[in-house]
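FW: tagging you since you asked about this chain on Friday. Here's the raw sequence from the shared folder, copied in full. Didn't touch anything.
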Amino acid sequence: MTLYINSSWFGSILMGLFFATGWTPCVGPILASILLYAGTSQTIEMGVLLLVNYSLGLGIPFLIAAVMIDRFAISMSKFNCKLYIVNYQLKWGG
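HL: got it, structure written out here
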């Protein structure tokens, strides 16, 4: 089963802007504290190790999501009719 999604470059930019706006308050303080801690660590190796671990922890879930997006979209399309029922029940309160 192949899913076709209409998209444009403008939609991609807009989605990226929304994602970055929501993402920045979550990632910014943690990255700032890790950079501060890495900058004041005793050795360069310790600072590099902290930043590498942070980068891997941030990047690996996105790589997994990119690989699994087709499988997720197909499985969600199978449950689409059930989602309408749940949405109706939630909207009208029962």
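FW: Helices lie at 9-39, 44-78, 80-92.
HL: agreed, and Residues 44-78 form the longest helix (35 residues).
FW: great, closing this out.
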